[in-house]
Structures are given as C-alpha cells and as structure tokens.
C-alpha cells in the first residue's frame, strides 16, 4: 500500500521551510519501518523507489512547483530511472535522503536522489527522468521553469548522467521485439 500518511507528514514538516532554488538540495530524514522490509529483513527495492517520493514531492513544494501544478492542472510523471543499491538498510534504521534537480533537456527534468546511512555511507542512489504532463501531453522544461521564474540554462549533466540518457535513448520500444 502507498504510504500516503508518510507523504502527508513530509509535506507537513516542510510546508514552511525556506524556498529552494530550482537546483537546491532538499534533505529529509526517514526510518525503515516493518512494512518496508522484504524477506531478507532489509528495505525492499521497490519500497525504496516509493520512499524516494517522500523526498521528491516535498522538493517540488520547496522550489514552488506544486503551486504551478495546481494552478495549471499539470501532473508529475516518471519516465525512467537508473538505480544503484550499495548498502543494506535494515528495519528501524534512520536514513537521510537528499533530493535535487540535476539538469534538464528539451523534454525532461532529471532528478537525483540518494539515501545515506548514519555511518555516512551512501546506501543507494537514483537518477529519475521526470516529466510534467498536461492535457496537451508533456510540458517542456523551459515552460515549467518560466512559470517558476527561472530563466537560466540547464546545469551541465555529469558524464555518467549523459551516458545513461544517451544509452537509454538507444533502447528499442516496445521492448523484447528483437
């Protein structure tokens, strides 16, 4: 089940936080709860992606995007993800989540998120390709950024992010047709 109450709690916690610039980093703290674990008593990989919503959506609020979504009737969509899992997160372990907009291109906004253990080790990391959608389809990042009052060019994507973006563009669709 989707953790609606946890998401509402995060939105409540950060409702009066300082506004962030478009590429600012939102830091939040979370616990791995009993319903987040898998058979191996660690944070389930699917639940990890769900918990990333707990950082990404408050980030959207802090940069002013939620106000724009409501005003325009737009929605958020995930168009792709690349995840690396490196360290286990066990039940009741506290984690720090960091969320930020990494860059954007003509169609998509790329959001980077990571979970950090209290030891200082990075447990996992994700790069999301996100899109805003409206009645007319995908809303271009330049239009979204204009609504936010941000007119600067996209930050350059790191080489690893560019490589993923380029590699993913080579994937066939629909899949498994070869």
TrEMBL record:
InterPro entries: HotDog_dom_sf, THEM6_lcsJ_thioesterase. SUPFAM superfamilies: Thioesterase/thiol ester dehydrase-isomerase. Pfam families: 4HBT_2. It comes from the Bacteria. PANTHER family: PROTEIN THEM6, PTHR12475. This is Thioesterase-like superfamily protein. The lineage of its organism: Bacteria, Pseudomonadati, Pseudomonadota, Alphaproteobacteria, Rhodobacterales.
């Amino acid at each position: 089940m989707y953790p609606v109450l946890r998401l509402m709690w995060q939105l409540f916690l950060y409702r009066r936080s300082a506004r962030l610039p478009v590429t600012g980093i939102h830091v939040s703290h979370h616990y791995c709860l009993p319903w987040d674990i898998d058979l191996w008593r660690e944070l389930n990989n699917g639940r990890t992606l769900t918990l990333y919503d707990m950082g990404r959506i408050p980030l959207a609020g802090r940069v002013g995007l939620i106000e724009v979504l409501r005003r325009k009737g737009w929605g958020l969509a995930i168009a792709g993800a690349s995840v690396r899992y490196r360290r286990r997160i066990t039940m009741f372990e506290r984690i720090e989540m960091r969320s930020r907009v990494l860059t954007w291109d003509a169609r998509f906004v790329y959001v980077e998120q990571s979970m950090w253990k209290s030891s200082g080790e990075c447990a996992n990391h994700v790069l999301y390709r996100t899109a805003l959608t409206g009645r007319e389809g995908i809303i271009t990042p330049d239009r979204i950024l204009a609504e936010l009052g941000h007119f600067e060019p996209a930050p350059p994507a790191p080489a690893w992010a560019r490589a993923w973006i380029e590699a993913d563009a080579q994937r066939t669709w629909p899949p498994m047709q070869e």
